[in-house]
Amino acid sequence: MNELTVEGRPLSVSNLDKVLYPSTGFTKGQVIDYYLRIAPVLLPHLRGRPLTLKRYPDGVTGPFFYEKRCPPHPAWLRTVAVPSERRGTIDYCVIDDLAGLVWAANLADLELHVPLHRAERPEEPDLMVFDLDPGAPADLVDCCRVAIDLRARLDAFGLSALVKTSGAKGLQLYVPIGGGARYGETKTFARELAQCLEADDPRHVVSNMRKELRTGKVFIDWSQNDPHKTTICVYSLRARERPTVSLPVTWREVQAVAHHGRSEAIVFEADDALSRVARKGDLFAPALKAPQRLPGAPSAAGPGRRAGRARRKGTAPGGAARRRHRLRRDGPGPPRAASPRRP
User: Which ranges in the chain are annotated with CATH 3.30.70.3300?
Assistant: First the structure.
């Protein structure tokens, strides 16, 4: 057992030499070191969100378990009570600072899974996500091509999207959302947009959740826009064979992969992530600073002006059908770059 003081808080850490990634020899001590060093860019995205731990006490080749209810923890660690239909109320951990992050890493919580909302506003997401998951033989290259199309569709609504690797097989597009939008609105919008892409490109895209339909296609998972679901936090490690990281990428990098077909250019391990952040800073920072109003979301202008604006934008009552019609009628507008397809 080793004793650390992190930002004035005493912490006990153990088994620092234990190998958690056998194929590379990456140890628990290196996991803690990674989270200590990546914390300046990770914590602003993690802070205030109820955390679901995914723990690998014997490393990535051993058994793992998810843990929603916060395990025994220091008195200073914040928790938040979240109602659960099956379990009553669950007290989730909330990691707000570096000491909390080190505490979680010492539990072999390799992966940090969080919802799209902050604890104080459980029904109001500040992000909308499109999780692109390739069904073999589709791969990360195909995800890049679909991501380019999806970005163009979002542009048609005046919405900017950030993109990151999942750290596993796919990509995730995030749209910063403000204006008091509710999960019902973001989930409906994401589902309709995914369905439109599938209708226009059924050979390469699927929006139906049935696994047997995903072979050779990219599944656009819109269902993550739900208060009870989580996605991997940006800059989190993944429990893969190697210590890969869910890392932001630029749209230029996505376009290059789509064009050249070399997905290894956007696969990053822990050391890559640290050196990249040292060079580029937090490419995901706009998620914290640039909330956008979802078409059809509530407006502070009041009911009368909301309805007028909605009618002008085609998002008044019945706007769901109108949005689909607009997407199919007008398309995305001039694309930023071609997204080449496999024959």
Answer: 127-229+247-265+281-330
CA-to-CA dists, residue 281 to 42, 167, 272, 291, 300, angstroms: 11, 18, 13, 20, 34
Assessment of whether the complete model's pTM goes beyond 0.90: no
All CATH 3.90.920.10 domain ranges of the chain, comma separated, are 2-114
Tell me the one-letter amino acid at 201.
Answer: D
Hey, which residues does 205 pair with through a beta bridge? 218
* Residues 127-229+247-265+281-330, CATH architecture: 2-Layer Sandwich (3.30)
Over its C-alpha atoms, the chain yields an Rg (Å, rounded) of 21
Return all residues near 88 (Cβ < 8 A) that are at least 6 apart. Answer: none
What pLDDT, in 10s, does the model give residues 282-333? 999 999 987 899 985 433 333 333 333 332 233 333 444 445 444 544 444 3
Q: Spelled out in words, what is the top-level CATH class assigned to the domain 2-114?
A: alpha beta
Cα(45)–Cα(73) distance, integer angstroms: 22
